[in-house]
Amino acid sequence: MNKEILVIDDNPDIRFLICKILKDKFYNVRSAANFDQAKIEINKKLPDLAIIDIKLDKGDKDGIDLLKLIMSIDKTVPIIMISGHANVQLAVEAIRLGAYEFVEKPFSTEKLLNYVSRGLEASELKREKENIENKLFYSFDLIGNSPQILNLKKNIVKIATAESRILITGLTGTGKELIARKIHKNSSRSNSPFIVLNAALLQEKRYEKELFGEEFSDGNISYGILEKANKGTLLIDEVSEIPLDIQANILRVLIDQKFKRINGKKDISVNIRIISSTSKNLKNLVDIGKFREDLYHRLNVVPIEIPPLKSRTQDIPLLVEYFKKKIAEINGVPVININVNNDLLFTYDWPGNIRELRNLIERVTILSVNENQADTNKLLSDILNNSYDQDIAESDFSKTMSHSLKEARELFEKKYLINQLKKSHGNISKTADRIGMERSALHRKLKTLGIKGLN
Predict the structure, then answer these.
(1) Bond preceding residue 303 cis, omega within 30 of 0
(2) 203 and 319 co-located in one domain
(3) Lowest mean pLDDT among 7-11, 83-87, 95-99, 315-319
(4) Same domain, 273 and 364
(5) What is the C-alpha to C-alpha distance for residues 290 and 243, in angstroms, rounded to an integer?
(6) Pair 302, 323 in one domain
(7) Do strands 28-32 and 166-169 pair parallel, antiparallel, or not at all (unpaired)?
(8) What is the CATH number of the domain that holds 22?
(9) pTM for the predicted model, two decimal places
């Protein structure tokens, strides 16, 4: 299918010339002479690329306003700005606002076509990358045959077909967003937007603007997340981080299904399915007054709890096989050979859960290009061993600062010996050999520290 290009220039001769150049190369071309005409064309259908003259004579809005408009709708659309009154400041401003390229008049046919070709290619690559990443999101949560994951798969099918609000809880890196995307994909809203609001990353003073959008005196509109998610699904990630006063505004939207933009006068009606996620205990936050109880009950209609990776280690071989193939595909490198029976994969605590495992496989994949299997598995073991040591050092340091030297030493020894026992699958003799200690002495130490067995 031929790419569609929108040409906006108030000079009819230049507009005609650019259109002819593009049509000769079999592009589908639309054109407009000013901001208003261009806005009509954009509302009909967003082009694959736009060529915009900065100075438009008629009306009080110029090419920069059109650039802002398209960027507010879709930042992946490449925009080539052209001008006969170019200066460095203007060019820098256009690029800062999201323009792909800035071209000064007069320009050669070859130069223009080169920019168009490169802009479309860059946009295509960006979309392909997003598609690959989305495929990873959509299928990731299906990996696993543990009872917890089989039950989760079954519940996703049931939940997806309903319209109920969902609260997903789980530790960092367990895949909360991935589960939300899977629910959306299997719902009746799958062809509508899936929008993510990361409440932990948003500055407090920007919440209202991000949620509700804003109307400006010149007639421009900045659309908020609620409008962008209309008829689709909105995931509020780390919902516990939303300030209390904003929680009240969100509650009102849930009740009324409408809101006003900042500086707006009319109500905007929306139909959105809300999925929330958190790594914290919202009920505890309600009890101490840091989260509204009425909002909690409206969000927590259908709860989903995702188990940590360390509680379903039987899924690790499947996850490793899946990730090594996906990561090789994304990075264009060979699939690496990993020994999925490596003891360290099963005894490590995985504080970063699935995300940490994925990052580990990606790191080993990139560093193992042109290496043999033995080197690859040694690298994986070295990384996990270093992670053990770092985990012990970081966690115990923060925990022991308030203890006496004797207490701190005992806490460290207990953590260290538990980890060493995990590495040896609870075998006392192997653990003693590993740490260079007599078996009888290790038995006494374990008894002294109150270590009776492994969970």
Answers:
(1) no
(2) no
(3) 83-87
(4) no
(5) 8
(6) no
(7) unpaired
(8) 3.40.50.2300
(9) 0.60
